[in-house]
């Protein structure tokens, strides 16, 4: 029985991955507004009904990995050492996030770059990213307060995490001629938390 569940889970992951890849490639080739769910499903070789088993709308495909953040953040914060300062914890967390194997594509993958460009240039995706970043920033600030209840107040935690998320977002989406890399993200995080070096 467990083998069957394992096979089923692997098949579901392959289907979800195929839908994500098909959608991002089609959004890039045809444009976000001109791509239909039916076309995404056909490119992934599944039915439109199957698409809706995984995503409720086509914009969700672009943000499919958002469900991974809380688990990855929890894992990073669990590894906190007693003498680790808040800025150091946040920088280590960003490094772990940017190099995690859990994402749909590695950070330096072509589809990661296309996804970043789509988010920067397609208004509904940009709006969705801003809302998701605001939610992520609040969850990260809450986790930081819990990790440092004596050292940080709510304002300090919000300012640190807001600066961090804002800097990374700017680095990922403001210069479309430059490819986003782990180094760029880490440099942006370092500047936000430690100032110019």
Automatic annotation (TrEMBL):
DNA-binding region of this protein: 36-55
An example molecular function term from Gene Ontology annotations: transcription cis-regulatory region binding
Keywords tagged on the record: DNA-binding, Transcription, Transcription regulation
Domain HTH tetR-type intervals: 13-73
Pfam families with a match to the protein in the record: TetR_C_14 (PF17754), TetR_N (PF00440)
The organism's place on the tree of life at top rank: Bacteria
UniProt key word Secreted: no
Record's keyword annotation contains Acyltransferase: no
Name of the protein in its database record: Transcriptional regulator, TetR family
Organism: Saccharopolyspora shandongensis
